[in-house]
Amino acid sequence: MALQRTSLLCWIRLRRTRAPTGTICGRLCATRAPSIRPAGRPVLVELEVRRFFCGQPSCERKIFAEQTDGLTRRHARRTGALHALLTAIAVALAGARMAALAGMRASRSTLLRMLRALPDPVAGKIALLGVDDFAKCRGNSYGTVLVDMGTHRPVDLLDSRTAGDLAAWLTDHPGVEVICRDRAGAYADGAQQGASEAIHVADRFHLWRNLAQALEKTIRAHRSCLQEAFEAGPGVDGETDNGAEPVERPKTLDAHGNERPLVARIQERYAKVQELRDGGASLNAISRELGLAFRTARKFANATSVEELLAPTLNRSSRLDAFKPYLTRRWNEGCTNAVQLHQELQAQGWEGGLRAVQGWLTPLRGHRRVQPEPCPVPSPRHITGWIMTHPDRLDAEGQVQVKQILARCPELEAVAGHVRGFAAMMTNRDGHLLDDWIAATAAGSSPHLAAFATGLRRDHAAVTAGLTLPYSSGAVEGTVNKIIMWNQSCQAMCLWITPR
User: Fold this and answer.
1) Cβ-based burial of 444 (10 A; exposed 0-12, middle 13-18, buried ≥19)
2) Helix, strand, coil % over all residues of the chain, rounded to 5
């Protein structure tokens, strides 16, 4: 053993008690192979082995090199232990830099070659199968991931999400008893064609998410009545002032009185889309003519009014909302200097600029005392989250907000009752109550919730199984998230390498 400048060199000479049989002769030769790193230095093993020469003219191989079990193998450039360790690094990290830091020099091409050389794991018989799609290119190309729900490990990837590909895979892998999937029609048809005897289980996560989407649409439809209720409510801390004057703030104008470009663009697009739609144009034709994405054209075409599209923009929250009661009180006390008020807000933690304070104070000019502005209406997403959260897990503010909102809108109170009934049915696995819930929801006043209930009827057996059986697609969703993260990291690496 010798210590070189950058590595550790080991000499090993094999000893044999007897020579192998046959008409061969041999001589000693030396070969070198990198091995696992000890003592913080790379190790280079110099091994003396015998090379045998065959004297038979008909033999295709003239030279035979002696191999050492557990240390060398034919055509190998590394020891078996180093090869296994590099393969493990490639599987876990795919990082040539990590291997170099550990003293095992290997390029990224070598590690990728090791990964490709690994045999594909044998799927075997799968009784519980999870199916879901993932985006290869969002909005354009999708694939399908198949997960063994017994081991929570992915077993295969399909290049598309069509019914034919899933049916062909199930035909080649018989024995599937339970299929956990979402309510997509292609997967339902493919599973029925390829495994007709299997039990279909609709994933509870997708059911809950679809219900949340229907609830949010319902809340957006009641945005106007919620706005009126909040405007009719008491002022800040319930204070009233008979001498105070109301302040008009046009929502379509910015804080400086200029027309908001986003509002004008939404109004113009809505008018053009509705005009083309009334003329019989298809959504694809509208998207091509106006240069809009298909989903954007569909959103503008399906909107019942332009106010529905403007609601997220006009009722957007601001970082100044928490300081507006203080600004109103200081204005009524006689302090109208925007610079001074801005400095006072900075002492309270305000991080915004002076122009934001000046813009908010502009409509107050000309009024000696003003009425406190009503509390801003929470966003539909916030209200959806409050309603879909168990009451015992809501904080005090959330409980008060939900109670006030439901008291001001009886229709939303009825919808919240349906949502909580579905949550109890899903938590307690009471799938036998699904028909009663669908009938009650379909007879309600919310068209969005009724459409959700109608969709459950189309996949009634799978939804009932999902609300009754303990199976879920949580492992499949986790695998999809890993694929998305891997895809994003690869794209980020490509963007980092391209300029260099």
Assistant:
1) middle
2) 50, 15, 35
